[in-house]
What we know:
Elements: E1 2-7, E2 12-17, H1 21-31, E3 36-43, E4 50-51, E5 61-68, H2 74-98
Antiparallel strand pairs: 1-2, 2-5, 3-4, 3-5
Amino acid sequence: MFDYTLDRENNRIYLMTSSNVQLVEETIEEFGKQLHVEKHWHSKYNDYIVYDYEPFCTDGFNIEYKIEANEKELVRLNFLYWRLQRILNNLTYLEVLCT
């Protein structure tokens, strides 16, 4: 799954994931084309290790996205946040159905 928060004061979405990376990236690519997106790899075991590029072995890393918008693109940011909520709700629902 992934964890996300909306910072309305700074017009940002913080998104952390270790699974469903392809789904998250496709959603950001589709709905966040005009938004500023930063991608970093954070170590699961050491808070000080952060890479701006994909590490050789990605097993021990979470991917963090920081998505920013200016005042004109705030509607896009809110829509992307809503879309990520819907995806997470659908994934949770499907997991419940499968168990």
